[in-house]
């Protein structure tokens, strides 16, 4: 069997161990320390001059704290993009609130601004103003975030931007994660850079990241003894993981360039196949192309579906995966309200994520292309 080609695997730059060694040498083996502080500064300065970051144990933890800070309480409603990974929506459930799912639009595959406004109006008419809106920049493609911010502003609802997949993506030069009142990032093993596991909460308001750090470290009030006036969490990032993150930040720009080059290779290879389509960058949009994705329209292929390609790749020990199955189709969210026109349903039906790791070499690409040739011959 030929070696496995993964969808997206960790890719170390080489300097990570220096930071980790330093942590050992100075005995900062704890969920605080110089690497945590340094990593937060690295993230913030990469994103924007005037933003702050709190390094946390995961992107999911960051979303959970973002919702706590937004004041979400049991019985509240939170609007969330339906087409996403379940981690975007699960923290709503942690707080015994109800997710209200909103469909995608076809240009970016992310939250449709029109459907969002329909949902807001209808929830308000039903007597429940949503407490927050969670748009997602899927696969690195920025959502229609300016339009979403405009609508959210009109109804005065905070936006929590799920930029877990979109570190380095931007709209008109403004980075994903910096539009909303809070942004969240993930450094899980499969993301564009990794700390093995980790996340961050970012905000322009320093009080917000300070609050996140406070909540993430068991919410200890200022007192010599342990005094608590809030429910706390143990969500801080380890100084060891942050060391990996510091090294990864040094190569982030290369990783983005490489992922974009992988996408370009797929695009060049398949743009001539009538049944295959891609998601292009709208004007002013810049995607980190975390994952390269394609749609395969079986009506135009004489029966070739995304499953045909997925299984053919799998037979060659190459990992690929259908697009995220929308949350409104998931058993755990059976009873959640949903607004949409079946766009994300269709994307799920026809869409496939192709191997996109920045550490894939030419030989790997050739193996993938051979399968594509066979399937679409
Ligand atoms: C990965 C991911 C998360 C969760 O991040 P973790 O660090 O794995 O907890 C949230 N939302 C989206 C869209 C993701 O892809």
What would you note in describing this structure?
This protein folds into 2 domains: 16-250, Aspartate Aminotransferase, domain 2, CATH 3.40.640.10; 253-376, Aspartate Aminotransferase, domain 1 (Alpha-Beta Complex), CATH 3.90.1150. Helices cover 37% and strands 14% of the residues. The chain is built from 11 helices and 15 strands. The protein has helices spanning 16-25, 34-47, 59-69, 90-94, 113-125, 145-155, 206-216, 239-270, 306-315, 343-350, 362-375, and strands at 52-56, 77-81, 98-102, 132-134, 160-162, 170-171, 174-175, 182-186, 199-203, 276-277, 285-286, 292-296, 321-322, 338-339, 351-354. A hairpin with a 2-residue loop joins β6 and β7. α1 (16-25) runs antiparallel to α8, α3 (59-69) crosses α7 and α9 crosses α11. The mean pLDDT is 97. The structure holds pyridoxal-5'-phosphate. Pyridoxal-5'-phosphate is lined by residues 58-60, 84-85, 87-88, 136, 162, 164-165, 186, 188, 199.
Discrete helix count? 11
CATH superfamily of the largest domain, by name, is Type I PLP-dependent aspartate aminotransferase-like (Major domain)
CATH hierarchy, class of the largest domain:
Alpha Beta
What string, H for helix and E for strand, traces the elements in order? Answer: HHEHEHEHEHEEEEEHHEEEHEEHEH
The CA-CA distance between the termini, in Å, is 24 Å
How many beta-strand elements? 15
Largest sheet: 4 strands, mixed
Structural class: alpha/beta
Domain tally: 2
Principal-axis shape: globular
Instruction: Assign the CATH topology of the largest domain.
Output: Aspartate Aminotransferase, domain 2
Strand content: 5-15%
What helical percentage do the residues reach?
25-40%
* CATH architecture descriptor text of the largest domain: 3-Layer(aba) Sandwich
Small molecules held by this entry: pyridoxal-5'-phosphate
Radius of gyration over all CA atoms, rounded: 21 Å
Order of strands, widest sheet:
1-9-8-5
Low-confidence stretches: none
Mean pLDDT: 97
